[in-house]
């Protein structure tokens, strides 16, 4: 097993103009639980997850990705990472120190190569969580986040060099080359992926369900809510996970998934998959075809938060 300072994905934070509508979607339709609020802030947990929260919403004039947060094993690891990043010329936007978000802890914030704000933290209190029951169609935990980048090779190298991520698999197009890199920070096939896009933005946030039945019940429940489904249900080849993609009220793509593959990292060798083959996108053949309209939705709006740290 490789040595890493990053252990897992903690939460993804979004800023939106219509805070009330976004809050209603995530705390109602999507099945998260609001665990704390402040002026223009909402912290939302997944009932099956020990993380204090998996999504934070902030009211703002501009829609943007505020933050991606990862965990570390100890405060010493946070300090070691901060020192390493600073020595490499990475721009630190908040020096290591105590966190004032739910669960507290100790963390550092910095910009990645594309200007996204990233936080790495340790010693965050474990939230009291519970087992998700049979047929309960709410997320167990946050699964992964996918980021859009204009130069996915440069972004991949940055996360490999500075945060010790490893490449699991790649999607390619015969005429366009590499289109997506799946990256891991633990044995889970991917905690993050990097997709090729004309601009920097959020591609999607994914949430793990209890099992296939719960994933399908949740997919049906969200369809019945009137939320727009853009792709699925189906099962990808890379990662072998199920997928159903929807749009939240501000046009961010969110996914229900289950059974994401866990790897033997010592034996794993990355694949390069041609996603023009139908079985690569969807092994089952049940999803609507991947086409330009589906891809365009995943481009999202250009991120207004590039190299601008969130105020909280």
TrEMBL record:
Q: Which organism is it from?
A: Thermomonospora cellulosilytica
Q: Which residues form the VOC domain?
A: 8-123, 141-259
- Write down a Pfam family by its short name: Glyoxalase
For this entry, list what GO says about its biological process: L-methylmalonyl-CoA metabolic process
The answer to whether UniProt assigns keyword Amino-acid biosynthesis to this entry is no
- What would you give as a GO molecular function for this chain, any one? metal ion binding
**What sections of the protein cross the membrane?**
none
Q: Which PROSITE patterns match?
A: VOC (PS51819)
Q: This protein is called what?
A: Catechol 2,3-dioxygenase-like lactoylglutathione lyase family enzyme
Superkingdom, taxonomy of origin: Bacteria
Write the record's keywords in alphabetical order, separated by commas.
Dioxygenase, Lyase, Metal-binding, Oxidoreductase
């Amino acid at each position: 097993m490789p040595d890493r300072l990053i252990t897992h994905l903690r939460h993804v934070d979004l800023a939106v103009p219509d805070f009330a509508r976004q809050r209603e979607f995530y705390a109602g339709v999507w099945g998260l639980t609001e665990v704390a609020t402040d002026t223009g802030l909402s912290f939302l947990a997944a009932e099956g997850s020990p993380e204090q929260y998996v999504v934070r919403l902030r009211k703002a004039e501009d829609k943007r990705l505020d933050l991606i947060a990862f965990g570390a094993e100890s405060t010493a690891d946070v300090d070691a990472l901060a020192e390493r990043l600073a020595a490499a010329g990475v721009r630190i936007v908040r020096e290591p120190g105590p966190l004032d978000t739910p669960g507290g802890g100790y963390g550092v914030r910095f910009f990645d190569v594309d200007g996204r704000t990233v936080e790495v933290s340790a010693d965050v209190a474990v939230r009291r969580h519970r087992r998700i029951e049979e047929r309960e169609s709410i997320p167990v935990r946050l699964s992964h986040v996918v980021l859009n980048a204009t130069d996915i090779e440069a972004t991949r190298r940055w996360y490999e060099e500075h945060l010790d991520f490893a490449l699991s698999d790649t999607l390619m197009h015969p005429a366009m080359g590499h289109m997506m890199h799946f990256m891991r920070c633990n044995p889970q096939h991917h905690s993050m992926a990097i997709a090729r896009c004309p601009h920097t933005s959020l591609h999607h946030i994914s949430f793990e369900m209890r099992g296939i039945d719960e994933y399908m019940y949740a997919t049906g429940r969200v369809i019945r809510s009137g939320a727009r489904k853009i792709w699925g249900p189906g099962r990808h080849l890379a990662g072998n996970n199920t997928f159903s993609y929807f749009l939240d009220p501000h046009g961010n793509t969110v996914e229900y998934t289950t059974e994401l593959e866990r790897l033997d990292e010592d034996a794993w060798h990355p694949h390069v998959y041609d996603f023009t083959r139908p079985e690569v996108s969807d092994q089952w053949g049940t999803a609507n075809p991947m086409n330009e309209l589906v891809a365009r939705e995943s481009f999202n709006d250009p991120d207004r938060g590039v190299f601008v740290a969130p105020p909280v």
